[in-house]
Specification:
The chain is an all-alpha fold. It has one domain. It is built from eight helices and no strands. The chain is globular and about 55 Å long.
């Protein structure tokens, strides 16, 4: 056996441990709790105790990580960084175990489109989705590290903010296409939303309607992500619960 093959086997063992059910279950529960609670606490503190006043109509989400708007910007930064790390095994499990597990036998026979779609095509779509979702996790971590109070020459906060939402939008898009074409644990109507909802929110952000602020539309992009992310996480928890029985 060559050194490359031995390395690949070791990597596969580590990867399988990385996305085992117990680890992913812990990450799902922890990420939901930490992100939602951290975001809520950061918003409440900024709204009630911020030196300039804070609201979702006139402020970006990132302003929750600035001393200009809150006395405790570290709450948002730490929340983002911890959540970003927890997301990586979740996204891997979501793609490899929830979307494409047994895909070969699950291509929807009643769907005229899926009759023309091969397993390899589905796998390519899920790999593209995983790329964008992992990109969003890396960017999520970067937004927490390079907050608006820590400007850099390369404007890293802005770059990570852009790639964060880009990753989430296109990760949802390609995952939604797979759900639409294939029988998975995720309801098909949710897959359709994943194709249309996040990208619509992104277009509205880029081309805001009259009298609607980009600050508010950034929050809409976040809510558009939570609409599909939370149900998918709950479905994954139920999947893991069935496996553990």
């Amino acid at each position: 056996m060559s050194q490359l093959n031995r390395t690949m086997i070791k990597f596969k063992k580590i990867y399988n441990k990385f996305i085992n059910e117990k680890a992913v279950k812990f990450c799902i529960i922890s990420s939901l709790f930490i992100f939602l609670l951290g975001l809520l606490i950061a918003t409440v503190i900024a709204f009630n105790f911020g030196p300039r006043g804070y609201n979702i109509w006139d402020n970006f989400i990132s302003d929750l990580g600035s001393f200009r708007y809150t006395p405790a910007p570290f709450i948002l930064d730490i929340t983002f960084m911890i959540t970003a790390v927890l997301q990586v095994p979740i996204y891997s499990y979501f793609i490899k175990r929830t979307l494409i597990n047994h895909t070969k036998s699950n291509l929807n026979p009643n769907n005229m489109i899926s009759k023309k779609v091969s397993f390899s095509t589905i796998k390519r779509l899920t790999n593209i989705s995983l790329f964008f979702l992992i990109l969003s996790s890396i960017s999520f971590f970067g937004v927490g590290v390079f907050s608006v109070d820590h400007p850099t020459i390369l404007e890293l906060h802005l770059i990570f903010s852009i790639t964060l939402f880009t990753g989430l939008i296109f990760g949802a898009l390609f995952s939604g296409i797979v759900i639409f074409l294939n029988q998975t644990r995720i309801p098909r109507f949710l897959g359709i939303y994943m194709v249309l909802g996040p990208i619509t929110a992104g277009i509205l952000y880029l081309c805001p309607p009259p009298s609607v602020t980009r600050f508010f539309l950034e929050w809409i992009m976040l809510f558009a992500t939570l609409v599909w992310a939370i149900p998918c996480l709950l479905i994954m928890l139920n999947q893991i619960k069935e496996i553990e029985k």
